[in-house]
DNA sequence: CCAATCCCATA
DNA sequence: GTATGGGATTGGA
């Protein structure tokens, strides 16, 4: 492409895929209504999108020509090719139907041409315009995220796509990322994988991954079909042979028509200044006030706010729209490497003057307990970042360490800044950095943690909370991948061996992005009601958890080793018995082989096959067989238990003991569970066995330091108590106040009498309620026919009408707003699944949505207790008591001998009053406390 | 060496 | 039926 063709005079056509946009907008945006009370959420989203696009008229690379393309008719040439095409597509939701005509009205209001043509789908019309514009030498941007249209991308010819929903440009590189093949090969991949929504058959067993891999290997569909002899997987090969015709048909179905006559000539699509009157009339008619204000205020020229923010503003006029921040591209070349004192002093002064600074520590290891510092990066403004190396060494034996300031000097100079109460220190996953500085004797405060902020705002959304992922989601920015610096696998190097140049770009970017995230997220915390949960619950927990991780818990290595060999012997002898019962050896640990042995070799009946065609051999199945007297099944069950205990616990735990401290230091994740719970990893100390006697032995390996005891305090039935509170069930609340056994009470209400079986059934049902289970699910769990399950749940609702009301109101709230809330305001998001057209996905989201407020409130409570615990203990003169672990409803402490009763009183008080003063509960929170030489004894 | 799958430990 | 993390096997890079 010549320079002349890229001159500003080159026309740039924007083709808006209106039909697909409105579907996606419907599922992604809240169900707003317009001034007439008609559903208009999708129309609103569509209007703001057109606004933004049209607004680019005068901008560089903005549209000079524009058209909206719609689907006109149901019947197209594809139906003639294949009568099943789009045959199973469900009808559009009923509150979307009335919005279709409004799309044309909205488009006319902008005075933009709206193009549809009988017998052609929108995709085809777009393809025709792309072809015409391409030969005329125009640039084209297709505004859509439809994967079928990605076939048309041709960056050399200036043809790309724009996904306004995610504010993302799609070019060759993005297509490669998604499909593993360039745009011109996308049709080949689509043909193989098929499309269940449009009912394009594809080849069974081939999904996106395999399709992409095959096309990468063979180039196109025909070559794949002609090369089946080179395909090693037998199932895949057969499927390709059997369904070759379907694959060829699919290839034609996904091929876009690009040579039909244009309904409107290219020149007719020129974008002129948009007359104000029709637009004003439309916005006023619909009652889109925030847009109307913008039309009257800054006019169409004002930009910056996203569609999402407009919707927030439309939903609640009081909530301020997010600040309009101009996007500044990340420029890593602006970052400085600090290797002299005056420069360091300058940065410290700058941070102090500013009042906030983002920082990130780089180390040689992801485990912060044993990690050594490599360097520290700071950022004070977008693109204004520096990296201070302190622990870099040469990349290999021959090279010397680079010149850098001594670690002790840097830490000494930074300490006053890091401890300055007037300067906010911002980190991403700040727990890690906090531990690094704590090890150096610096108590960093005050802090903000952008990872926790993201979690408190966006838990449950489609993106996680890692720095790179958030950079992508919020700024459409790709961070330097860590493996690009350090490699991967066995050739991976540690960060302290990275050259200072690349290290500065990487570390500076981390601090830079962290700062940008803070600027972006901080205003949202208050605007979206997350202040209570962030400021009072999660933020204060960052150093608390950091301290717990540093303390670790003492583990008796010799005892674990003895258990390991004991288990090992038992496993051996079980294996011999199993081989005997199975008439020959096999890999017991392989579910595949075990299934073959049980249902093949031994010829047992009743095997359940799962979706992969493999026999299920889980506990339920094996227990069923064992109950029928199958020796082999009960032996395998025992073998499974012992191998699980040995590999996951006795062996793995020994390996996790830190040689310096003789203790195990887990890592708690503050953002691991969508409901607000913590999670624990490396090792996971939240799933140490307790239910079986033999598993319980593992708990005895957790011991107290010399002169201390382990104390365990746990909330009794906290989730049921919270359910009784939140659903407002008088009998249940009363029972909890009087210390009545709750499952017996439920059995009495449901069955009119109480015995062991009925109490157990009632217990199952009580839990099923917490988990949002259906009548069908309860019946399955209790082993009853479906109608009896339904009868039981009806009776439950009849006896406890509050539960039904709670379920109902939780679901209608989440359907409307897309999120649930705990008593303390923590939100968990459930879009898009809560509105999924797929009933099983939707039902899954509904169960999770019923559980989330209860599980989440329980998580909030114990977190509030934890945040207050250290101060309360210190005030009681129990500064020596160490909080070590949290297991969702339990806290484990190390308490000096003789102080157990005192500690018990304080801990119980803090935990029982954790809701106060924010919330007044009508149900007491019971806390059970025990202690002993080891964890097993403390229960 | 990596991922998908199955199974299983906890609350 | 909810929420997690992790080990072993398997099959293909």
UniProtKB/TrEMBL annotation:
The reaction(s) this protein catalyses: DNA(n) + a 2'-deoxyribonucleoside 5'-triphosphate = DNA(n+1) + diphosphate
PROSITE patterns registered for this protein in UniProt: DNA_POLYMERASE_A (PS00447)
Top enzyme class: transferase
CDD domains: DNA_pol_A_pol_I_C, DNA_polA_I_Ecoli_like_exo, H3TH_53EXO, PIN_53EXO
DNA-directed DNA polymerase family A palm domain boundaries: 695-899
InterPro entries registered for this protein in UniProt: 3'-5'_exonuclease_dom (IPR002562), 5-3_exonucl_a-hlix_arch_N (IPR020046), 5-3_exonuclease (IPR002421), 5-3_exonuclease_C_sf (IPR036279), DNA-dir_DNA_pol_A_CS (IPR019760), DNA-dir_DNA_pol_A_palm_dom (IPR001098), DNA/RNA_pol_sf (IPR043502), DNA_polI_H3TH (IPR020045)
Domain 5'-3' exonuclease: 9-272
Hydrolase in keyword set: yes
This enzyme's EC code(s): 2.7.7.7
Job description of the protein: In addition to polymerase activity, this DNA polymerase exhibits 3'-5' and 5'-3' exonuclease activity.
PANTHER family, sorted: DNA POLYMERASE I (PTHR10133), DNA POLYMERASE NU (PTHR10133:SF27)
Protein family (similarity comment): Belongs to the DNA polymerase type-A family.
Subunit record text: Single-chain monomer with multiple functions.
Protein's recorded name: DNA polymerase I
Organism in which the protein naturally occurs: Sphingomonas hankyongi
């Amino acid at each position: 492409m010549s320079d002349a063709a890229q001159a500003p005079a080159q026309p740039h056509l924007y083709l808006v895929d209106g039909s697909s946009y409105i579907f996606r907008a419907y599922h992604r945006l809240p169900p707003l209504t317009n001034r007439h009370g008609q559903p208009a959420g999708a129309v609103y989203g569509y209007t703001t999108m057109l606004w933004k696009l049209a607004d680019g008229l005068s901008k560089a690379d903005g549209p000079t020509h524009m058209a909206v393309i719609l689907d006109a008719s149901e019947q197209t040439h594809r139906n003639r090719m294949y009568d099943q095409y789009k045959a199973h597509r469900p009808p559009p939701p009923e509150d979307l139907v009335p919005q279709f005509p409004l799309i044309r009205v909205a488009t006319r209001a902008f005075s933009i041409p709206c193009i549809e043509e009988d017998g052609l789908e929108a995709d085809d019309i777009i393809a025709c315009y792309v072809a015409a514009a391409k030969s005329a030498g125009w640039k084209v941007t297709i505004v859509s995220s439809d994967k079928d249209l990605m076939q048309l991308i041709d960056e050399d010819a200036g043809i790309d796509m724009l996904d306004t929903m995610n504010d993302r440009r799609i070019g060759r590189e993005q297509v490669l990322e998604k499909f593993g093949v360039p745009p011109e090969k996308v049709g080949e991949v689509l043909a193989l994988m098929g499309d269940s929504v449009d009912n394009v058959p594809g080849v069974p067993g081939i999904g996106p991954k395999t399709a992409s891999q095959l096309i990468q290997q063979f180039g196109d569909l025909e070559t794949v079909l002609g090369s089946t002899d080179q395909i090693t997987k037998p199932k895949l090969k057969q499927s390709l042979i059997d369904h070759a015709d379907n694959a060829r048909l699919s290839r034609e179905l996904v091929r876009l028509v690009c040579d039909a006559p244009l309904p409107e000539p290219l020149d007719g699509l020129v974008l002129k200044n948009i007359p104000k009157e029709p637009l004003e009339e439309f916005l006023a008619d619909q009652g889109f006030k925030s847009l109307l204000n913008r039309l009257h205020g800054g006019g169409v020229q004002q930009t910056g706010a996203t569609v999402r923010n407009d919707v927030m503003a439309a939903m609640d006029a009081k909530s301020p729209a997010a600040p309009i921040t101009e996007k500044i591209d990340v420029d890593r070349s602006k970052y400085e490497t600090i290797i002299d004192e005056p420069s360091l002093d300058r940065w410290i002064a700058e941070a102090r003057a500013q009042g906030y600074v983002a920082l990130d520590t780089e180390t040689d290891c992801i485990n912060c307990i044993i990690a050594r510092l490599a360097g520290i990066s700071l950022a004070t403004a977008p693109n204004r970042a520096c990296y201070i190396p302190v622990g870099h060494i040469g990349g290999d034996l021959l090279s010397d360490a680079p010149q850098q300031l001594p670690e002790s000097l840097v830490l000494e100079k930074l300490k006053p800044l890091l401890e300055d109460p007037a300067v906010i220190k911002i980190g991403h996953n700040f727990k890690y950095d906090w531990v690094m500085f704590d090890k150096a004797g610096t108590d960093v405060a005050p802090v903000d943690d952008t990872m926790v902020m993201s979690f408190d705002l966006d838990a449950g959304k489609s993106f996680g909370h890692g720095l790179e992922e958030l950079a992508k989601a919020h700024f459409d920015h790709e961070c330097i991948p860590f493996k690009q610096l350090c490699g991967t696998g066995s050739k991976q190097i540690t960060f302290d061996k990275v050259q200072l140049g690349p290290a500065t770009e990487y570390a500076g970017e981390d601090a830079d992005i962290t700062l940008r995230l803070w600027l972006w997220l901080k205003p949202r915390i208050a605007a979206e009601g997350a202040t209570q949960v962030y400021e009072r619950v999660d933020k204060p927990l960052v150093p608390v958890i950091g301290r717990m991780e540093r303390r670790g818990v003492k583990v008796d290595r010799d005892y674990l080793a003895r258990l390991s060999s004991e288990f090992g012997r038992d496993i051996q002898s079980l294996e011999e018995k199993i081989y005997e019962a199975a008439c020959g050896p096999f890999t017991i640990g392989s579910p595949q082989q075990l299934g073959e042995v049980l249902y093949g070799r031994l010829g047992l009946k009743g095997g359940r096959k799962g979706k992969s065609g493999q026999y299920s051999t889980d506990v339920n199945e094996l227990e069923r067989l064992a109950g029928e007297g199958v020796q082999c099944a009960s032996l395998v069950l025992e073998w499974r238990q012992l191998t699980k205990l040995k590999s996951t616990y006795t062996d793995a735990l020994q390996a996790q003991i830190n040689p310096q401290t003789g203790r195990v230091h887990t890592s708690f994740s503050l953002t691991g569970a969508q409901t607000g719970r913590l999670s624990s990893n490396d090792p996971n100390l939240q799933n140490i066995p307790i239910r079986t006697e033999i598993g319980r032995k593992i708990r005895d390996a957790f011991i107290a330091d010399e002169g201390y005891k382990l104390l365990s305090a746990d909330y009794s039935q906290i989730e049921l108590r919270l359910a009784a509170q939140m659903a407002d069930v008088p009998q249940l609340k009363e029972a909890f106040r009087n210390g009545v056994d709750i499952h017996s009470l439920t059995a009495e209400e449901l069955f009119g009498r109480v015995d062991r079986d009925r109490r157990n059934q009632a217990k199952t049902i009580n839990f099923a309620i917490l988990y949002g289970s259906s009548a069908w699910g309860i019946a399955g769990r209790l082993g009853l026919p479906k109608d009896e399950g339904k009868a039981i749940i009806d009776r439950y609702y009849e006896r406890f009408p509050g539960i039904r009301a709670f379920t109902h109101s939780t679901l209608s709230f989440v359907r409307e707003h897309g999120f649930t809330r705990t008593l303390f305001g923590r939100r968990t998001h459930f879009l898009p699944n809560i509105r999924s057209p797929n009933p099983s996905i939707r039902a899954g989201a509904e169960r999770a949505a019923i559980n989330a407020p209860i599980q989440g409130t329980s998580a909030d409570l114990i977190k509030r207790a934890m945040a207050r615990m250290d101060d309360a203990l210190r005030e009681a003169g129990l500064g020596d008591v160490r909080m070590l672990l949290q297991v969702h409803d339990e806290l484990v402490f190390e308490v000096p001998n003789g102080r157990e009763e005192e500690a018990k009183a304080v801990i119980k008080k803090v935990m029982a009053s954790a809701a106060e003063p924010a919330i007044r509960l009508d149900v007491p929170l019971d806390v059970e406390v025990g202690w002993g030489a080891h964890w097993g004894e403390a229960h």
